Amino acid sequence: MIEKLNRRDFIRAGAAAGLTAAVPQALLGQAPAVIAPKSARPVVISSANGNVFKNGGDVTGVQKAFGMITQGSDVLDAVVAGVNILELDPQEDSVGYGGLPNAEGVVQLDSSCMHGPRRQAGGVASLEGVRTPSLVAKAVLEQTDHHLLVGKGAQEFARNLGFKIEDDLNTEKSRRLWLDWKRRVDPSHYLDPRKRAEAGHQAALQMVREGLIRQEHLWGTINCDGVNAKGEICGVTTTSGLSWKIPGRVGDSPILGAGLYVDGEIGAAGSTGRGEANLYNLSSFLIVEAMRRGAHPKDAGMEALKRVVANTVEKRLLNDRGRPAFDLNFYILNKRGEYAGVSMYASHYAVCTEKGPETLPTEAMFEGKA
Ligand code: ASP
User: Fold this and answer.
1) Euclidean distance between CA atoms 7 and 9, whole angstroms
2) Is the dihedral of CA 164, 55, 207, 273 positive or negative?
3) Which of 18, 73, 84, 333 sits at 20 to 30 Å (Cα–Cα) from 305?
4) Domains detected in the chain
5) With contact defined as beta carbons under 8 Å apart, do 85 and 227 qualify?
6) What atom of ligand 1 comes closest to residue 221's alpha carbon?
7) Residue whose CA is closest, atom 1 of ligand 1?
């Protein structure tokens, strides 16, 4: 239940703290909403891949995170351990080791994480050579005064902390797929960035049609959020980003408020899909703010999708029905353990509760496909 401090309570609380005189009258009506700190139902929610890949082990990402949470681990440690399973899995080509590389064949990874109770955050972008960018993002959170390190600096930071830096995070599969894509792209298009981008996009879509890569892995990411019985909530997002991206392109995943946002008093939201659409609207922040005003996770997610739809006006981004021609998914959890997966078009998400891991259909904004 969202409980707004009413004006009288707020004044009483302020008076008790001897603060009333210092608080401008105009602000008294804007006291922040907090979700009452009752005990929560432990939940882990993630993109659907969180209940697919096991990296040769016994459990999926959401199972791992849920098990750790219910055994008392810190929630951020748990969700990061969950996504590590995918980052390290060579078969999962949208995340970490074996993630599909950029246009030059280099795997560049993005990640962010947030710790609700500690009010701390960390992220890395365009990180090369480290299989588990989520652990580097967590190190940024825990060991620096900063929120985001990028490129060479992020790699140096990781090296200094003892992370193994590898020359190439491609697997045989991701390298083969990149070579296939490269063969389809006329190098002369480098002369015209617009044509080249279009040729690259068309080549990628053709590879999806031919079944070489999964539609959801053209983009592809894992976001994983968890809450424990005390209502402590944390989240992490990690990705190899848009396949065949321009080197240096950073998507929404490492950007707080876009690919992930956690407010320890309210809830968490994270995203997969077209990062540019999400970055433009800072949807995860929008979703958490909607929950702060009392919205259920599903309604908060729908509000963000509507905003994305309203801001998608360029013809090249619209399909023949005039709707967004891309997928975008949000994974949303509040402090009480209520959750939702919402998406622009039909999709799936993963969840783990006391009932065990499940893959569920998202609430979709539109029927059909992008
Ligand atoms: N949102 C990620 C990005 O734009 C990719 C994805 O989730 O599919 O980098």
Assistant:
1) 6
2) negative
3) 84
4) 59-364 (3.60.20.30)
5) no
6) 7
7) 275
Distance CA 152, CA 313 (A): 36
Q: Is the CB of 96 under 6 A from ligand 1?
A: no
pTM of the model: 0.79
Task: Report, as an integer, the average pLDDT of 287-303.
Answer: 98
State the residue for tokens 């608080």.
Answer: 23
Residues 163-190 have pLDDT tens digits of 999 999 999 999 999 988 887 775 544 4
The two tokens of residue 224 are: 């994983």
